Amino acid sequence: MERKWWHDKVAYQIYPKSFYDSNGDGIGDIPGIISKLDYLADLGIDILWLSPCYRSPLADQGYDISDYYDIDPRFGTMEDMERLIAEAKKRGICILMDLVVNHCSDEHEWFKRACEDPDGKYGKYFYLRDKKEGELPTNWRSYFGGPVWDDLPDTDKQYLHVFHKKQPDLNWENPEVREEVYKNINWWLDKGLGGFRIDAIINIKKALPMHDYEPDREDGLCSIHAMLQEAEGIGAFLGEMRDRTFKKYDAFSVGEVFNEKPEEVPDFIGDNGYFSSMFDFNEAIFGRSGKGWYDAAPITPDDYKKCCFAAQAKVKNVGFLSNIIENHDGSRGVSYYIPEGDCCDESKKMLAALNFLLRGLPFIYQGQELGMENVPFASIDEVDDISTLDEYKVALEAGLPPEEALKAVSKFSRDNARTPMQWTDGANAGFTTGTPWLKANPNYPSINAAAQVQDADSVYSFYKKLIALRKDPVYKETIVYGALEPVWEERHNLMAYYRKGERTLLVVGNYQREPQEIALPAMYKSVLLNNYKDIAQDKGTIRLQGYQVLVLEM
Ligand code: TEU
Ligand code: CA
Question: Is the pLDDT of residue 275 over 90?
């Protein structure tokens, strides 16, 4: 595998709207991010991915872009953005922007012009079809509910949107659209960006000609996945994009890729792959049902382990996955992957170590380093997220009583991850001096950065140690490039693996409240990390405490 500048880095995702508000309007902003760069540098972050802060009506919180060359005034100005890139650079941090090009906003100039003249140049930027009374062009269901077709205002046509109706899909079959995308990427890379996280990219290739699929719910519609399964040839678009943009700059790109086939891994992330890396969503999508969130099967510790190892086995040493515990699209990982009632500092640290030391690039989502948890929603009125509101409706339609429906969707709600970053125990978690756009999690008096930064035993300090270990010149080669070998795979509620390179490390976590014993094949040389004060052992036998995690050099 060819060595790349980003292989040994540690990345961090910022959701700008909820990170830090510098001017009291209740919305996080770019000057707010700049003021927290020292916090991030001190933690050991090298790559910073910002969820979208381009000009946007914020129908999907910025994933609906109305101008790819501008910053939304709620987030700041272009000068702020340039200052962020420069200030980050001074601290050895590079910035990734979010590339949202499956769709734009219905308030983008292109879409407005398509409405004015659907048969002209800009009509071809979108997927338009003639409107027929009582009949839709296809029976596809949008990710956010309802049909993917809506009327193109003031015309006799309809347009396609696989996400929200304010997110019309761009027609990638049109070379002019692709040119516009590449021009924009290069424009940003010329500003000194490190690269991009690439949104929903798997949706850019549609199976053509479009047709209906077997309905999978009462609504007579079918999941987009049915169409995506059939779509072929996305590689031509992705390869072209790589060659025309990222490659020339040696930029970093990480794709939001779902459902790639094992044989496609080298094309996606091998040497000269379409992307530098792609996220591992294997754990996040485990148990998901076509019926909706309400029907999802819970994930157990054994499932979690299997999902992580399966993803590792699929990629092997072909390339680098980007490993995540959470992102802005769902639950807080500690609330999701740790069995109910067991979420505590020890279990949070265990999950952190097990995930962070997998082979691949670690991405930390804002607040994850503090062990931020899910939100106790008292009513659906407290939810802002469009996806959660739709899934709540789906659960009610399936016959769940309102309390059950709320409980079911609360578990997956994207708002769990979107509450304000918990900086202090002061009003609104120190996020804003005004009224936050989304209420802070009420647990901020006990979970906040100010307290944890000073506490050597905090979750934050544990993350800092994990990052320091990954960067330690003695262990770096092994942690970054070493092979991953599962151990004791069949043991219940135990997740363990070797990292083998210049050195041999054993990472072992007791994924349950009750203690359990392991017999080491040989005595370890040293303890690199332990979320407890000591190790209960008798020669080669270790009695792991509840949720104890150890990183041992063998
Ligand atoms: O998400 C793409 C995606 O696959 C979604 O189906 C995601 O699983 C869903 O939002 C969960 O409810 C990306 C972004 O990460 C997301 O925030 C955006 O809403 C979406 O694209 C549209 O841009
Ligand atoms: Ca603000």
Answer: yes
Distance between CA 379 and CA 437 in Å, rounded? Answer: 17
Residue 475 CA, distance from chain mean position: 27
In the set 29, 98, 256, 391, the catalytic residue is: 256
- C-alpha torsion angle, residues 28, 279, 469, 538 (rounded to 10): 120
In this structure, what token pair is assigned to residue 42? 């001190």
Whole-angstrom distance, CA of residue 269 vs CA of residue 526:
34
Q: In which region does residue 531 sit, left (phi positive, over 0), alpha (psi from -120 to 50) or beta (all else)?
A: alpha
State the closest ligand 1 atom to the C-alpha of 388, by its place in the atom list counted from 1.
Answer: 12
CA distances from 424 to 5, 20, 94, 232, 444 (A): 35, 11, 26, 50, 7
The residue from 98, 199, 283, 346 that is catalytic is 199
Residue 414 CB–ligand 1 contact under 6 Å: yes
Looking at the predicted structure, is the pLDDT value of residue 202 above 90?
yes
Q: Is 288 exposed, middle or buried (CB count within 10 Å of its CB: 0-12, 13-18, 19+)? A: middle
Nearest Cα to Cα of residue 357 among 319, 325, 310: 325
Q: Is 2 a catalytic residue?
A: no
Instruction: Specify the ligand 1 atom closest to the Cα of 103.
Output: 23
Which residue owns the Cα nearest ligand 1 atom 3? 200
Task: Please give the pLDDT value at position 382.
Answer: 94
Q: Which two three-digit tokens encode residue 480?
A: 């970054």
Contacts of 239 (CB under 8 A, 6+ apart): 274
- Which residue is associated with the tokens 């290739």? 205
540 in Cβ contact with 519 (< 8 Å): yes
Q: Count CB neighbours of 78 within 10 A.
A: 12
Closest CA to 531 of 483, 462, 469: 462
Q: Could you tell me the CA-to-CA distances from 196 to 15, 192, 251, 335, 459 in Å, in that order? A: 15, 12, 8, 28, 29
Residue 227: the pLDDT is 97
Q: 475 vs 2, 119, 288, 478, 497, CA distance in Å?
A: 20, 60, 37, 5, 16
Do residues 126 and 170 make contact, with C-beta atoms less than 8 angstroms apart?
yes
- At 522-547, the pLDDT tens digits run 999 999 999 999 999 998 899 999 99
Spell out where 135-244 has E strands.
140-141, 149-151, 157-160, 195-198, 222-223
**Has 403 been annotated as catalytic?**
no
Angle at the Cα of 233 from the Cα atoms of 228 and 239, rounded to 5 degrees:
120
Residue 346 CB less than 6 A away from ligand 1: no
Give the pLDDT of residue 190.
Answer: 98
pLDDT in tens, 20-48: 999 999 999 999 999 999 999 999 999 99
